[in-house]
Write a structure and sequence with these properties.
It holds the Pfam family TPK_catalytic. The protein has 236 residues and is α/β, with parallel strands linked by helices. It has six helices and 15 strands. It has a ten-stranded mixed β-sheet. A five-stranded mixed β-sheet has the order 1-9-14-11-12, with no helix packed on it.
Length: 236
């Protein structure tokens, strides 16, 4: 079961269920500080540390992320010095075959066993450039963690990858438009709980996809033969 009810608390800036978090170097949603506060372990991917430090300073929060990971070519020296003083560990990873998001997830897997299916909230993973968004979706799908536990947040959307099989999703009250996107190749999909359900329909890019759908109940089910991308538009 994929429980997204905690997202309601995030949007209202309330500390919610314990989670792990990764902060990327892209636009943060207004509730980024709520994600940070709810995190047992927080990782900044390179320049994401600059953005998180700005949020912390604006909130008057003296805390710091647990770790900074990446090749550190986007990390400001002042940020580096400040986070070191606050107690963050700085981890330079030079592997050029992986992006900083992938490096951060690999690093996180060394500290939290993927077998425990931890919830990983990713800030700054979507929105803006489409190539970056798709690269991050691909990274989430191939990470050491169950992709359904890696939740990527922008200001008004949460995105995750549903593995093949039957996926029951508990939606937050703030969920509005829903999408099922076969970005990993054609997938035979059946759904229940949506305004426009499908049964045994092949979805494919360039063919049929499910977009701008709505839920008729808070628990929905997606059965898919191959991984698909699931999106929920969020509104207070």
């Amino acid at each position: 079961m994929i429980d997204l009810k905690y997202v309601d608390n995030l949007l209202h800036h309330k500390v919610t269920r314990p989670l792990s978090s990764v902060f990327l170097n892209w636009r943060f949603p207004s509730y980024a500080h709520s994600i940070f506060q709810a995190s047992d372990i927080s990782i900044c991917a390179d320049g994401g540390a600059n953005r998180l430090l700005q949020v912390l300073n604006a909130k008057g929060d003296p805390a710091a992320p647990s770790h900074v990971v990446g090749d550190l070519d986007s990390l400001d020296q002042t940020t580096l010095d400040d986070l070191k003083a606050r107690g963050s560990t700085i981890n330079r990873v030079k592997a050029q075959d992986d992006n900083d998001f992938a490096k951060s997830l690999t690093f996180l897997a060394r500290h939290i066993s993927p077998r425990t299916r931890p919830l990983v909230a990713v800030v700054g993973a979507s929105g803006g450039r489409l190539d970056h968004t798709l690269a991050n979706i691909s990274t989430a799908a191939s990470s050491p963690f169950d992709p359904s536990t890696v939740h990527m947040f922008s200001e008004d959307e949460v995105t995750l990858v549903l593995p093949p099989g039957v996926n029951k999703i508990i939606l937050p009250d703030c969920a509005r438009s829903l999408g099922i996107l076969p970005v990993f190749g054609p997938s035979v999909v059946s759904t229940s709980g949506f305004q426009w359900d499908v049964s045994g329909v092949e979805m494919a890019m360039g063919g049929f996809i499910s977009s701008s759908n709505k839920a008729v109940r808070r628990d929905v089910v997606v059965k898919n033969s191959r991984p698909v991308c699931f999106t929920a538009c969020l509104s207070e």
